[in-house]
Amino acid sequence: MIDVSRPEPAVWLRGLTKKYGPATVVDGLDLEIPRGSTFGLIGPNGAGKSTTLKMMMGMLSIDAGSATVLGVDVSADPTAVKRRVGYVPEIHSIYRWMRVGEVIGFVRSFYPKWNAGLCADLLDLFELDPKKKVKQLSKGMLAKLALLVAVSPEPELLVLDEPMSGLDPIVREEFLDGVLRSMCDSERTVLFSSHTIDDIQRLADTVGLLYQGRLLVHSPVDDLLTRTKRIRAVLHDGVLPRWLPETTIWQRVQRREWLLTVGDFSEDLLPRLRGENSVHDVEVQDLSLEDVFKDYVKGRKGAA
Amino acid sequence: MKALLWKDYRINRQVLIVGFCLLVAPYLAAVSWIWYDRGLTGAGAHHWAAVLAFAAQASVICSQMTLVLLAGYVIAGERRDRSAEFLAYLPPSRSAVLTSKALLSAAVALVVWGVFLIVAEIVVPALSGEAAAGQSASFAQTRPMLLAVGVTLFGMAWLGSSMLESPTYSAAIGVVAVMLVPIALSLCHTLTGQPAHGDDFMDWLRGLYFALGAGGFVAGWMYYIRRVEP
To answer: Which residue of A has its CA nearest to B227?
Structure first.
């Protein structure tokens, strides 16, 4: 249950499940994203990121569980959700026969609010010609148009599924530091998925790691990076590790080098690690978000 | 709704152009035939009336194809080119999306039958007086059946369109339904002796066509509204 003393979360998923035949793509996902936060969803291909976002947007049926977005049950009233949420899908399917200006006019007609100034600024920034037909746009230009129409109604929640894919490095930089940063700094809630962990690290205040439809990590980025450390130790000749910390995410033994990544790291862990295992030269390393992500995935794959 | 109507008109423009051609082609053929046969000024009013009555009948028969094509394309067409996914994350409700498509279809049906009725009921009698009355009366008898066939073609293609990704298969469902109903009714007659041949059989056929078409339309509507995926 939600604590009534706290404001309603922007996104509240409870046991969200999606199956395609025998395959469970999203498996009992529980997730709460507070209002005003910037949440980055990361995960390898096929982790269920896009499926989760589509269920949240009322574009895919939910097999079990529920999704509440901005206080509205998506299954009960998807239209109310769509009015208040801007969404950029991974694959853009905007009407190819429309001109850019027609797309803007068409989308604009459905929203109660539209920031014409922002729309004009983005048209300039993205160098989109209103007279050009959608079918003449490159993949990158199409992504820009999709972003423009998602952002211009000034939605309370912005859901971006791989928003930067297809953008060239310069526009990507401008978009990240200009448009998205201003969105993230405002009161607005932003939820975006990305393969590019650098984008997540730059913008997100909280991160979720999805793997095989399950949420492995849900933590503030800084907290995650502070808590997760890699320990490098050298094993004595002919011995193998005997004791592993409970919070071990991933480990590898190669010759005498023992690498292990642990969550909830504290300095107290090291004396026990030394005491229980025949090791020397124990060293603690900081990790980037990308390393954390990789180690979680490798750890899961290893466990499987 | 205006934006949705404009979008539906633009998406189905090719079908509408084909439909326009099917609507006017019999009239053009009639005018050409008179021109060729007697010259435009040489033909008398009675002659014009007879040819126009025939053209009107042919036009409304040809235009059944427009309605079945439109029903097949109007929903499934957007699913096929994936543009339905774009609309799916925009705010319009599914009933608004469907209402726009139904309004466009209704407008087309209105034009088809409106042109037919104006020509058959106003123009032809005005030109012919009593002379073409017999022909008009015989054509008039076929109107309920034509309407019933049109309803089935449209309703069943609409049902297919709401469920499938292929406009062609959706339209084919309408055509197949129109062919299957008399076959099923004949089979029923062979096995049970009912309905009897003649008027009774035709009444049953018309009734079944109307019921099937209306049922298909309602079922398609309900299915689309309840469906979550675009």
So the answer is: A61
